[in-house]
């Protein structure tokens, strides 16, 4: 009997996109299960009873939760010929540190940008997001990828957020490329890799869903 692998996910999740890219990088086949985040399935609630969130990777009936943990799990279990984490312990520690930094800084700032109207809170969120992306630019240096000459753990951890850049810009009225040109070029290089671009959600689809959410749930009309 072969392996059974299911990914519980949502199309707009930057966290879920990490798992999709990592599985594609490793050449692993899996069943994709789109989840309704407003009416969570019994499978999701049973698989992640603590946080009740996606993504969840279910491997032969055993759930693995939290996207960065899922990334490491995928890296350890499949295709050792394409490691995502770097070989040296210090480099691995640094990759984990910056991936954690991304989640602690980018997610909250990005959410405030699209979930608020214009005002001081949104301006502060835009400033925090740009500062965070600039910090990531400094870590990229002159390399093609955060993993060096090829896509690695930190690239996979960050690339899903890039699909939200259009939403941030449209809701916040600013340009990420203007502030972070080097990071924008990194996004383009990532998207030139077929398994990356094929695993990510169209930014227009994410923006469209957020326009509807802002209008129907938050009462904010997007210009």
Summarize this structure briefly.
This protein has 223 residues and is of the alpha+beta class. It has eleven helices and four strands; from the N terminus they run βαβαββααααααααα.
Protein described:
With 223 residues, the chain is α+β, with helices and mostly antiparallel strands. The protein has 2 domains: 5-77, 3-Layer(aba) Sandwich (Glutaredoxin), CATH 3.40.30; 89-218, Glutathione S-transferase Yfyf (Class Pi), Chain A, domain 2, CATH 1.20.1050.10. It has 11 helices and 4 strands; from the N terminus they run βαβαββααααααααα. It has helices at residues 14-26, 42-47, 67-77, 89-115, 120-140, 153-162, 165-172, 176-179, 181-191, 194-197, 203-218; strands at residues 5-9, 31-34, 56-59, 62-65. The chain has a 4-stranded mixed sheet with strand order 2-1-3-4, covered by helices on one side. A hairpin with a 2-residue loop joins strand 3 and strand 4. Helix 4 (89-115) packs parallel to helix 7 (165-172). The model has no long low-confidence stretch (mean pLDDT 95).
